[in-house]
Automatic annotation (TrEMBL):
Endpoints of the signal sequence: none
InterPro entries registered for this protein in UniProt: FAD/NAD-bd_sf (IPR036188), NadB (IPR005288)
Protein name from the UniProt record: FAD-dependent oxidoreductase
Species whose genome carries this gene: Jiangella anatolica
Superkingdom assignment: Bacteria
């Protein structure tokens, strides 16, 4: 029998991903007490427990993020400089990229990201201002009219804890607080009739969501055999071909996200990939898969330190499209989670036994799972990589025509008078549960409107991640690491700001003077509210 106790805090943040951590830190800097819950035993979400190196825009080393996000990035580099035997050129490199991956200018091990985030919150824990509850998930909520009064979270042993706080922030990966609190929200595709978006379908498709993926890390030991046991469902996965996909999913052939033309990717473990251009405006980076999301590069370290690179397998070939994790029974959810894990292990088994090699042979039997860098025994990430959440019905919904390069052209994205941050990424939608392949649309550097963080009705719950007021389409560019951090940071800052001033979020948004004061506070704290004059891609 589980027991239930109670606890209070100024601000409850449910979900310890990037948005949740940023929200907690922002509130703590403003003198508030915070209780933060996290379903896994790592904070950091997509950066850590989901195993995904940062996906970032081309200008990230210069501008285009909050100051605290840049501190996170520099703290990760400092960790490598302090503890790893870097080659001289790497130690001196201002923009150290430990993995020399092509997807980002900062490709690193998930466990290093987790260690750095733990260090960033450690002083607040020591001061007694922050409590982090690991392995806790929300299971119930109490609501009084338009206010959420409490949330119940459950630990791994079934023990339940009721938390009461004036403000509650939903930083979960799937927007789990929204249905628990009755907060109005949407899922999947909106219709073109409702949003006017060029890429939206004629009819809404609430069950059509982006695929999630269960990523894993591998190195390669030449001359050794690390072949895993053949997954039970391998034969079925080996033949599985999603709708509109040009061939079986498990292969090196897949559509180009931007043109939809299929092409064969290269995959050569520890091969010479040449100079790394980690700039997606010039090279998407996915034509050679070993270097694409490489997180440990031998060349970065002193000779002889690392016998192999380490790379993360987060490719379209492991995008799980047979079903969603939202709006399904627990039994169905568990089936899809198990299916995603089996798909990933089937992809690995195929790489080890059937993948074509340049020498005419097949299979790379030296591929070895590196669960140690993921913090797991089985080699898979601690949690699936989630691309799409439930989204609030917001006071302002960001739509494709607000920022599409094809629509906006040289005018740039819509300038929001209530901007509380900025971001940039192409509208990048992976294959979906409804049978779509890709939607990949050039975008303009955009702003984050405060109205997108405000539910239409509920007064004291704020989204702090991918659950803000975007559409299925614009979620594709608002879902990545720096924007999620910015959204969370603003949500935490707004809750603390309202507590200090005896205000509500809606009042801040509605009053020009109050909004201006809050924007000034954000700017002083290092939140960029507008872009310099640059072009999208």
């Amino acid at each position: 029998m589980s027991s239930e106790t109670a606890r209070t805090a100024d601000i409850l943040v449910v979900g310890g991903g990037l948005g949740g951590v940023a929200a907690a830190l922002a509130a703590l800097r403003r003198g508030r007490s915070v209780l933060l819950t996290e379903e896994t035993d790592w904070i950091g979400g997509q950066l850590t427990s989901q195993g995904v190196p940062p996906d970032e825009h081309a200008w990230i080393e210069q501008f285009g993020s909050t100051r605290s996000y840049r501190e996170l990035r520099e703290n990760i580099r400092a960790y490598y400089r302090a503890w790893y035997p870097l080659a001289g050129w790497a130690r001196d490199a201002r923009d150290l990229n430990p993995g020399q991956g092509k997807v980002s200018r900062l490709c690193h091990e998930p466990r290093v990201g987790a260690a750095v985030l733990e260090a960033m919150v450690a002083p607040w824990i020591a001061a007694g201002r922050l409590r982090v509850l690991y392995r806790h998930r929300p299971v119930a909520a109490s609501v009084d009219g338009d206010r959420v009064t409490a949330v119940v979270v459950e630990g791994p042993d079934g023990t339940r804890l009721e938390v009461r706080a004036p403000y509650l922030l939903d930083a979960t990966e799937l927007g789990d607080l929204l249905p628990l609190t009755g907060t109005e929200h949407v899922t999947g595709f909106e219709s073109r009739h409702d949003t006017g978006e060029p890429s939206a379908p004629d009819q809404a498709q609430p069950d059509n969501l982006q695929a999630f993926s269960w990523v894993f890390a591998v190195d390669h030991r030449a001359g050794e055999d690390h072949t895993i046991d053949r997954p039970a469902g391998y034969a079925a996965w080996r033949e599985y071909q999603p709708p509109k996909w040009p061939n079986p999913l498990i292969s090196l052939r897949a559509p180009d996200p931007r043109t939809l033309e299929p092409f064969e990717r290269a995959f050569v473990p520890n091969g010479d990939t040449g100079p790394v251009v980690a700039d997606q405006s010039k090279d998407p980076g996915d034509r050679e898969l070993w270097a694409f999301r490489r997180i440990v590069a031998r060349s970065v370290f002193r000779p002889g330190f690392a016998e192999s690179d380490v790379t993360v397998v987060n490719w379209p070939m492991i995008d799980y499209v047979p079903g969603s994790l939202i709006g399904v029974s627990d039994e169905e959810r568990d089936k899809h989670l198990a299916g995603a894990r089996e798909l990933s292990m089937s992809m690995l088994y195929w790489l080890q036994t059937e993948a074509p090699r340049p020498d005419g042979g097949t299979g790379w039997r030296g591929l070895r799972l590196r669960g140690d860098v993921m913090g797991t025994a089985d080699g898979l990430a601690k949690a699936p990589y989630i691309r799409e959440s439930r989204r609030i019905r917001a006071r302002r919904t960001v739509v494709e025509q607000d920022l599409s390069l094809a629509v906006r052209g040289s005018a740039g994205a819509v300038a929001y008078p209530d901007s509380v941050g900025i971001g940039m990424y192409r509208i990048d939608l992976h294959p979906s549960t409804g049978g779509d392949t890709y939607i990949d649309v050039a975008s303009s550097p955009f702003q984050i409107p405060l109205g997108a963080l405000l539910p239409q009705r509920v007064r004291n719950l704020l989204p702090a991640g991918k659950n803000i007021g975007t559409t299925h389409i614009t979620n594709g560019c608002y879902r990545l690491h720096p924007v999620e951090w910015n959204v969370g940071e603003v949500a935490g800052a707004l809750a603390a700001h309202c507590l200090a001033g005896g205000l509500e979020p809606g009042q801040v948004h509605e009053s020009g003077a109050l909004l201006g004061a809050f924007q000034d506070e954000l700017a002083a704290d290092g939140v960029e509210l507008a872009w310099p004059e640059i072009k999208g891609y």
